[in-house]
Write a structure and sequence with these properties.
Layout (H helix, E strand, L loop, with lengths): L10 H4 L2 H6 L6 H6 L6 E4 L14 E6 L7 H10 L3 E3 L4 E5 L9 E4 L6 E2 L3 H6 L7 E6 L9 E6 L7 E7 L2 E2 L5 E2 L13 E5 L10 E6 L6 E4 L1 H6 L8 E2 L6 E2 L9 E10 L11 E6 L2
Parallel strand pairs: 1-4, 3-8, 11-18
Antiparallel strand pairs: 2-4, 5-6, 5-7, 7-8, 9-10, 9-12, 13-14, 13-17, 15-16, 17-18
Length: 286
């Protein structure tokens, strides 16, 4: 039976146990430092505007995708190009009139009086009926609801994924070269932990992420692979943590020293998104 206990040399990569169990990495400090926008987002229409509690929140635009910065007109244009529909399984951006932090907002779907907290709005939207017109409002807790925006949901051609970082064996690529372990134990695991943005904050059955190392299309990894499996698409070369039923894509102890590139793309059962730009990293062997 393999030794799955965590030692000091594995602590960092296995500190994401909950994320590994769902096969999606979210909410880490690395993501917050490099990309303040993740999951379903609220973007201010002006960085210089910081609304007070007395201001009425205005919901100016909604659109599919994750953006470090986007204005209401650009978001509204993307929404109109998509036929007034949001892409099932992708992150959704809300553009508001004031500087409320996204984590402080509540939402209402289809005029329901029951508020939905920001972390849960993606999951609720993913369960909406395709082909019907829905509505969303936003507010600060305890305040009046904003104006209403209407939308539909559908499976669409996905946008581009964004690789934030890549970590293994206590080191992240954003901090320096990844270092392969010295004389690793036979049953020790040192997976590459991919931090990728693009999926809805609460990953759904509609979309997953494909990963490609060094442009080798014959072997692709994945994140949120349960969605792929439900669509009948399997990634048979992935590696299992012992006999746990939990899988990962690459192990640093099996990769030689040198430079590598990683790319990601979003995919659903109908459409495949474009490959992201290359995320370049280096592996060293002491």
């Amino acid at each position: 039976m393999p030794d799955l206990r965590l030692d000091s040399n594995q602590a960092r990569q296995f500190d994401i146990a909950d994320s590994v169990s769902t096969e999606v990495i979210q909410g880490t400090d690395a993501i917050n430092k490099k990309a303040p926008v993740q999951g379903t987002n609220t973007i201010n229409s002006s960085d210089s505007v910081h609304g007070t509690e007395s201001e009425l929140l205005q919901l100016q635009a909604i659109c599919t995708g994750e953006f470090i910065r986007i204005d209401a007109d650009s978001c509204r244009g993307r929404f109109e190009e998509a036929g007034g529909a949001l892409s099932l399984g992708e992150a959704v951006t809300f553009v508001t009139s004031v500087g409320s932090r996204s984590i402080g907002l509540e939402f209402s779907i289809n005029s329901s009086p029951n508020p939905i907290a920001w972390p849960d709005i993606d999951a609720v939207m993913s369960r909406l009926k395709v082909g019907s017109v829905h509505s969303v409002r936003a507010r600060r807790p305890g305040h009046v609801w904003s104006n209403q925006l209407n939308f539909q949901v559908s499976l669409q051609q996905p946008g581009e994924a964004y690789i934030v970082d890549l970590c293994a064996n206590l080191v992240c690529a954003s901090e320096g070269s990844l270092v392969a372990p010295i004389n690793p134990a036979l049953n020790a695991f040192y997976p590459l932990v991919e931090e990728v943005l693009g999926l809805a904050r609460s990953p759904t059955e509609h979309m997953w992420i494909e990963l490609m190392l060094n442009s080798e299309e014959l072997f692709l990894g994945c994140l949120n692979c349960q969605a792929a499996q439900a669509a009948g698409i399997l990634y048979l070369d992935r590696k299992e943590f012992g006999r746990t039923g939990i899988f990962y894509n690459w192990d640093i102890k099996e990769l030689s020293a040198g430079n590598y590139s990683l790319q990601a793309r979003l995919r659903n059962k109908i459409y495949v998104g474009p490959w992201s730009s290359e995320f370049v990293f280096e592996i060293e062997r002491p």
